[in-house]
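Page 42, continued from yesterday. The earlier attempt failed because a stray header line got pasted into the input along with the sequence. Redoing it now with the clean sequence only.
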Amino acid sequence: MKYETSAGGVIVARKDNKLQVLLLKDKTAKWTFPKGLIEAGEKKQETAVREIGEEVGIKNLKLIAPLKPVQYFYKWNGELRRKTVHYYLFRNGGEEYATPQLEEGIMEVRWFPWNDAKKIIGYPKTNKGILQEVEVKLKEIFNF
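This time it went through. Structure tokens are written below.
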């Protein structure tokens, strides 16, 4: 079995005085968070920032807090893989336009109101827990 370690992020912003979260539609047409493999010599948070910039075009990020890593299994070309993803919670620090990295199979990038994101998020076994953790952190830090 092959083991992989990735890092990514949940990006939130206040738009029209409402909390929104940035999601991407991946090549399986599921809404999820940007993430990617950690490169040699790269720190986890650096990977998260790089992958967010590459996959959704947002580079002006402010770290709010690290999130608990998630682990899951998936098959790639018939081979079972175990993946650990280290997520970070970021605030969008600017007015950048989100753009999908089409060559990586990202079909669309969009800001969603918080409650809508909770309804449409893909990979619920991992991503619903991430959104719940983000909600707790935002309440602790910002009285959300």
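Notes: The chain has one domain: 2-142.
Reminder to self: strip header lines before submitting.
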